[in-house]
Amino acid sequence: MTAPFVDRLTALVEARASQIVLGLDPDPAQLWPAAVEQAPSDGSAAQRAAGAVRAHCAALIDAAGPACVAVKPQLACFERLGADGWAALAATIAYARERGLLVIADAKRGDISVSAAAYAQALVGSTPTPFGEVAGLGADAFTANPLLGIDALEPIIAGARAAGAGVFVLVRTSNPGAADVEDLVLAGDDNDDGGGGAATVWERLAAIVAQLGSSSPSNVSGLSDVGAVVGATAPEHVARMRELMPNAPFLLPGIGAQGGRVDDLAPAFAPGRAAGLVSASRSIACAHESTGAAPAEAARAEAERLREAAWSLA
Amino acid sequence: MTAPFVDRLTALVEARASQIVLGLDPDPAQLWPAAVEQAPSDGSAAQRAAGAVRAHCAALIDAAGPACVAVKPQLACFERLGADGWAALAATIAYARERGLLVIADAKRGDISVSAAAYAQALVGSTPTPFGEVAGLGADAFTANPLLGIDALEPIIAGARAAGAGVFVLVRTSNPGAADVEDLVLAGDDNDDGGGGAATVWERLAAIVAQLGSSSPSNVSGLSDVGAVVGATAPEHVARMRELMPNAPFLLPGIGAQGGRVDDLAPAFAPGRAAGLVSASRSIACAHESTGAAPAEAARAEAERLREAAWSLA
Predict the structure, then answer these.
(1) Up-side HSE of residue A176: CA atoms within 13 Å toward CB?
(2) Catalytic residue among A97, A108, A282, A288
(3) Which of A99, A288, B64, B84 counts the most CB atoms within 10 A of its CB?
(4) How far apart are CA A25 and CA A75, in angstroms?
(5) Are A137 and A124 in contact (CB under 8 A)?
(6) Measured in whole angstroms, how far is the alpha carbon of residue A88 from the centre of its chain?
(7) Per residue in A96-114, pLDDT tens?
(8) What is the pLDDT of residue B264?
(9) B41 to chain A: nearest residue by CA?
(10) Helix, strand, coil shares of chain A as percentages rounded to 5?
(11) Which residue out of B30, B47, B108 would a mutagenesis test of the A interface target, given it has the greatest number of A Cβ atoms within 10 Å?
């Protein structure tokens, strides 16, 4: 029996002294040059590009992975290369696991009933077929979109729990457009959760995350298996988030390229270091563009810099 | 140059006298028996199951397709079979197009900036790589999740427009959990769009759909290229939806298995028949379970029954 995601996470955070999640957002037009050279010399454009993407992700994992606790592949970046891209995604996930890293599939999925369950099968579970069970991607956790409500999240969370996996629900994202929907203020009748009150859509989403996480299977870490994606570009929200979701692990993107600063995040770490995961993608993969060093060298240095900065806060 | 999605849709709705969208939600454990027999006799479980899924979808398209205007593959159902499943999805889309049907990829995707653009590349566009352009799935339209706001939808819509494709944004879904977030009532300051007012989250989402659709490239149909997913289980909302989004095509799931009734939908059709697409999945694919007829026969009859019922309302 696999240990619950939050226990595996907590142990690995301590073992590696890191809370850094390495985002993998490969753009086939902006891969590290050495990866492009490793692409197969024949095959379709999709096959060759997928080979280059796979080599790029492996090189990034080799360089920055030792300073990180998990990778976070963004699924669209692979899907756009079709079945070959999906195969590269599966290979990248397997490679990250071989290197001792956890995998958080950045899928932002959301759907209802059997479709929601099918996403959990695809990402962390498996699917019964007349020809035997078919394994999914084998991620340790994935991101989910809560717009469709609790009954749409439940099958996703049930599927994740059955696999000992975790779910990170979008609560307040790091883009300016978060103001359009997530930040809307609720009216009186909908603005009371019986406790501190839920004043905005994102606070309501946070209450849903806390509610769904309250039935987490027992674990050593004390963390909930339903986490939250909390944009690090809105640091003033992090303390309120923690108040509403006392046991949820936070996935904090928005560092570096999106403008967030790692030292705004301290409140996230209150329940323990594993409760505040700092995600960075372009700031690591593209570090060489500002430093002038070789890509792998620059990525390694930037991941280590982030690791140390986050660790010193917690 | 491809004609805009809404013009292709409008022409096909008239030519086929149909507003029915055939949902393709293949569950490998519940495929039509004849499709399971058509699976390859060797290969991995994933390869064999993907072959059976592909045969099932082709048989469903052969049976019910002539009464329909489009198919709507639900992506998770294919993703759970990995790269083989993604290849079956691509083949199913190609087959539907060969049969003269439009394809609406039911992806419910949402992400920010370059990740949002990557979803459009994967579903309706193409991706530049050092090895040449890689085509995406070639769908005619896809569904998107608006939780992340306008700046997250913009790259998706831009990518769709560049491909002459459409986007259907989730506005109010057909599950009971829609009450948890979509139906929340907004406070005064956020409850005014300068016009009729936006009282709930879903009304705000509708206003966003109308705003984004107002910049649709010119087309013959007069419809917006930004449509809305409107759950048919809440028929009392359809008239208000139409008021808020006068030119948006509506994709109306929730017929049959989810409890909606086709004759509640008449207000959707005000801007024209193509503005109200009626989606049905299990009620067609599983019609044989209640009628006792052969699966293809029952699917054909149920699709034709739905076609006629919707057409008679518009």
Answers:
(1) 5
(2) A108
(3) B64
(4) 8
(5) yes
(6) 18
(7) 999 999 999 999 999 999 9
(8) 74
(9) A131
(10) 50, 15, 35
(11) B108
pLDDT above 90 covers what percent of chain A? Answer: 86
Sign of CA dihedral B3, B5, B6, B11: positive
A207 → chain B, closest CA residue: B180
Q: Are A104 and A72 in contact (CB under 8 A)?
A: yes
Catalytically annotated residues of B: 108
**Which tokens sit at B254?**
């929730």
CA angle B38, B43, B45 (to 5 degrees): 80
Q: Are A12 and A69 in contact (CB under 8 A)?
A: yes
Cross-strand partners of A185: A200
Nearest to A279 by CA among A296, A262, A293, A294: A262
**ipTM of the modeled complex:** 0.96
Q: Are B144 and B153 in contact (CB under 8 A)?
A: yes
Overall size of chain A counted in residues: 314
Of the candidates A213, A238, A215, the one whose C-alpha atom is nearest the C-alpha of residue A226 is: A213
DSSP code for A45: H
Residues of chain B in contact with residue A185, where contact means CB-CB under 8 angstroms, are 186-187, 189-190
Burial of B251 (0-12, 13-18, 19+ CB in 10 A): buried
Helix (H, G, I), strand (E, B) or coil at B102: strand
3-state secondary structure of B185: strand
Question: Which residues from A are below 8 Å from B77, CB to CB?
Answer: 115, 118
Report, in this order, helix, strand and coil percent for chain B, each rounded to 5: 50, 15, 35
CA distances from B200 to A102, B144, B170, B192 (A): 39, 19, 14, 10
Q: pLDDT tens digit string along B111-153? A: 999 999 999 999 999 999 999 999 999 999 999 999 999 999 9
Q: Mind telling me how many Å the CA of A112 is from chain B's nearest CA?
A: 7
CA B12 to chain centre: 16
Tell me the one-letter amino acid at A192.
D
Looking at the DSSP bridge assignments, the partners of residue A302 are none
Distance from C-alpha of B221 to C-alpha of B19, rounded to nearest angstrom: 15
* Eight-state DSSP code of residue B109: E
Give the number of other Cβ atoms within 10 Å of residue B189's Cβ.
8
**Which tokens belong to A14?**
């301590």
Min Cα separation A203/chain B (Å): 11
